[in-house]
Design a protein that fits this description.
alpha+beta, two-stranded antiparallel ribbon, 6 helices, 15% strand
Length: 181
Amino acid sequence: MKSFLFMSLRLTIFSILLSSFSLASAFTLSNGEEVQCPVTRNGTSGFATEIWNTYSTPADRNPELGRAVAVMRLDANNWPTIIIDAQAHQKTAKGTPAQWDFVYFHECAHAQKPELTEIGANCSAYFDMDSRGLMSFHNFKELESAHLGMLNLPMEYGGSGPQFWHQTLQCVRRGREENLK
């Protein structure tokens, strides 16, 4: 009987650990929905790996992040991996939830189509949020304000935040016009 109870306890603990591991790889949107980024690469389908980078000092921060709060990189097996600055998320997610939804969908767009430009990934993020009902007027203004506050950006981002946002909205407009045809 002790053997049976011990085995049951081990299975229960294993199940709890397994379920918490799989939940840890899901991103929680501002509406509470947990999402994963579906990808297909070289005939294999699955979800992009998520790495929540935690660190005790800035020197310990993942160097792949650079100045960004999240990036997408291909791992050693050429599988898409989204690296998220866990500390930045923890500090700002409650105050700027739409920005984090947008960042997640932006990086997911890169994971799904690594050839996308930064403008293309922003455009895709916009449509993903819109299709999920997350692009309210308030969220749109939060995203617009964040972009307008970015001064100098590399040219692949349009050179500045206002230009980055302007080009994103041009892409969204073109996408909507194509859907009307």
